[in-house]
Automatic annotation (TrEMBL), chain B:
It comes from the Bacteria. Pfam families: Pribosyltran. Belongs to the ComF/GntX family. This is Amidophosphoribosyltransferase. Residues 140-229 form the Phosphoribosyltransferase domain. It comes from Peribacillus butanolivorans. CDD domains: PRTases_typeI.
């Protein structure tokens, strides 16, 4: 960093802390004297956290504009009626009198060595095509959708693009709605880019204060950033809560520089995203085949009769009972998806008459991970679960059934994700996925079509073993 | 459409004959959240509202209050404390969001419950436990004062803090032995008056007893208190 003699000194520590962020004073561990000095020299910007424009309040940090989520109170800090944002209050109160500080001084430059990547694995030809598109997108700027089937191996597809970005001095962020994914990705990226500082951000993480060339973050943590990143990669862009929370979209957009590249990564893009892709508005590349070159098992639909009524009469629909019994006999691990925790809790005693070792897993279970591990180890023959396990779970030889697949919680993308649990491993690339239903839903039909289309495209592109 | 002040779920606003006849306060939190607030019930200590356990009482007092009342330095200053709810995990979260995150709006969630209790209490003047200036500047409001403000009662700032040290770091003995925690600022206002103190949590009772002692010494005839949690 060069400074000319005439320009007043800036604090490199404060520069590092504030670059690309917008923070409350309480989030800046520097003395008020240093901060006000740097403001005076024009290195630090100051803005009100909550602004009122034409009678409408808006929160600069989270983008909230819903008047029901602002509240005005007699504030002792500014000694007047002061309006604050309730939507993002868990990150510390942003109000009319609470200022947000950002860095507008000299640019922070990261020291990047000539060689940044140590990953030397090989890509399948489907992955290679996508990887080339990612590299191009990083150089070109703009948006790219990487539509990769469950089990395609999408992380490796990013490495070449990340490498190109880092070498070009870009600041890159990989964001995901799920903390689990941050925890899983962060060590993989650290291994692939050992010479680069990788910071991981999630609720409760501690690497908060370091600016680094490569960041892995939950979408939620991006609320504290502003115009920070040259490249933002959003993994599982269709996952909860990003899929339904507009403020997270605001957070991601705010964290990007105006000229940034955005890469969306998913197996199940939203309808809207699929439409923009088909109409040519959104550039996309697909990876229709899994890394093991075998087609994705196509779900089979089976009518189970009125399952709710049968459960109330303390009976498991016979087709479902025999599906479970067969697998118990052959010692094939199984997952049964239910539409709600209530239904699942109601029926578990019935299923335990088939095997007393069957257990349940749901979002509020503290031992979620342990139970999944028990299934993997063969200590438990099967688990009853809800859509909570639709993503990220890999178990060898697994067979899956959805009970009440017509229920509205099973959207097309949920069903595709659930089907994506089957046949993931190299040694066992097949398996069965069955939708038990009491009347087919549109989502079921679309999910099956979705998987068939992907398999068809994979055949056409020669990505599957003959 | 109304939303729960705490969990932000949508609420159905139901006006029943019962709610109209009883003139019940309009609730600002949903039934689910209200259900997680556990009222203090059954036999309670006649001074501090603690639910009485057969191993921890002498007649109608809990052993803590027995200990306070035996001590000449403290006996008789606090006539009665009414607390609304158990300080359970849910209320802990709610109060933490209210005072540490600074979500002033949550005061509105507590007000209907306070109003309900205050109907049966007698007092001439209302005051609240003050914060140190340092805390007040950090939080922007005093969580006890916010309650009195929204209750719309005749409230007077009667007390100031003499110490700013964090109370939670001290043992019970240390807290009790502190000579003076509060100073009375407007002694002429409270002569011959019965005073109600509002605070958020009754933990050991020492804060409220310090306040009560200061107020009575300055001329108040009686001091009672009301808190959200116990
Ligand atoms: Zn906000
Ligand atoms: Zn203010
Ligand atoms: Zn609620
Ligand atoms: Zn007591």
């Amino acid at each position: 960093m060069e400074t000319t003699i005439s320009s007043p000194p800036f604090s490199p520590e404060l520069q590092n802390h504030l670059t690309g962020r917008l923070l409350l004073a309480s989030e800046i561990p520097f003395s008020p004297a240093i901060i006000s000095d740097q403001i005076k020299h024009g290195y630090v910007s100051v803005t009100s956290g909550v602004k009122c424009v034409n009678g409408q309040y808006n929160c600069v940090r989270c983008g909230n504009q819903n008047s029901a989520l602002f509240y005005t109170f007699p504030c002792k800090i500014c000694n007047q009626d002061c309006t604050y944002c309730r939507a993002c209050i868990m990150m510390g109160r942003v109000s009319e009198c609470a200022k947000l500080y950002g860095w507008i001084g000299p640019d922070l430059k990261f020291a990047v060595p000539d060689k940044v990547m140590s990953w030397d694995g090989t890509l399948t030809s489907g992955q290679q095509t996508a990887s080339d598109c990612v590299v191009e997108a990083v150089k070109r700027k703009g948006e790219l959708l990487v539509w990769a089937v469950c089990g395609a191996g999408k992380t490796e597809v990013l490495f070449a693009g990340i490498e190109a970005g880092l070498l070009a001095g870009k600041r890159i962020c990989m964001a995901t709605p799920r903390t689990d994914v941050v925890l899983e990705l962060s060590p993989r990226l650290k291994r692939a880019f050992p010479a680069i500082e990788v910071s991981s951000l999630y609720g409760g993480s501690e690497e908060r204060s370091k600016a680094s060339p490569l960041t892995v973050s939950t979408t939620h943590q991006l609320f504290r950033f502003s115009e920070a990143f040259d490249v933002v990669i959003i993994d599982e862009v269709d996952a909860f809560p990003y899929s339904i929370d507009d403020s997270l979209h605001y957070a991601v957009n705010k964290s990007k520089k105006p000229s940034a590249t955005t890469i969306y990564l998913t197996a199940t893009p939203s309808k809207q995203m699929q439409r923009s892709y088909r109409s040519g508005k959104l550039q996309a590349v697909t990876i229709p085949a899994r890394y093991h070159h075998k087609p994705i098992p196509v779900p089979e639909m089976k009518w189970s009769g009125n399952w709710q009524k049968q459960y109330l009469q303390k009976k498991i629909p016979p087709v479902i009972a025999s599906w479970v019994s067969e697998r118990l006999q052959q010692k094939i691990p199984l997952l049964l998806f239910f539409p709600s925790i209530q239904v699942m809790e109601q029926v578990i005693p019935l299923f335990q008459t088939l095997s007393p070792k069957l257990e349940t897993v749901h979002s509020q279970h503290p031992e979620r991970k342990e139970r999944v591990q028990a299934l993997r180890n063969g200590e438990v023959p099967g688990l009853l679960t809800t859509t909570i396990l639709e993503r990220g779970v890999t178990i060898e030889r697994l067979d899956v059934a959805v009970i009440g697949a017509e229920h509205e919680v099973f959207s097309e993308s949920a069903l595709v994700q659930i089907a994506g649990r089957v046949g993931r491993s190299f040694t066992y690339p097949t398996g069965t996925i069955t939708f038990f239903h009491y009347g087919k839903s549109k989502a079921m039909v679309e999910a099956i079509y979705h998987i068939q289309m992907m398999n068809k495209e994979a055949w056409k592109r020669g990505l599957l073993d003959g | 459409m109304a939303r729960c002040l705490f969990c932000v779920e949508e609420m159905k606003v139901v006006l029943t004959w019962r709610s109209l006849l009883l003139k019940k306060e309009a609730m600002t939190i949903c039934e689910r959240c209200e259900g997680k607030l556990k009222k203090l019930a059954g036999e309670t200590c006649s001074i501090c509202s603690r639910e009485l356990d057969k191993n921890y009482r002498i007649e109608d007092l809990c052993l803590d209050c027995v200990r306070w009342e035996k001590d000449k330095k403290w006996s008789g200053y606090l006539s009665i404390n009414i607390s609304l709810f158990h300080y359970n995990e849910f209320l802990k979260d709610m109060i933490a969001k209210y005072k540490y995150r600074g979500d002033y709006a949550l005061a509105e969630a507590f007000v209907p419950f306070l109003k309900d209790k205050l109907k049966d209490m007698n007092f001439d003047l209302v005051t609240f436990i003050p914060l140190s200036n340092e805390r007040l500047m950090e939080r922007g409001f005093n969580q006890a004062q916010a309650l009195t403000d929204l209750l719309g009662l005749n409230t007077v700032e009667l007390l100031t803090r003499l110490h700013t040290e964090k109370q939670s770091k001290k043992s019970r003995e240390e807290r009790i032995s502190l000579p003076q925690v509060f100073q009375v600022t407007k002694p002429d206002l409270l002569k011959q008056k019965s005073i109600l103190i509002v605070d958020d949590i009754y933990t050991t009772g020492s804060t409220l007893r310090h306040a009560a002692k200061a107020l009575k010494t300055a001329g108040a005839t009686e001091v009672s208190s009301i808190t959200l949690a116990r």
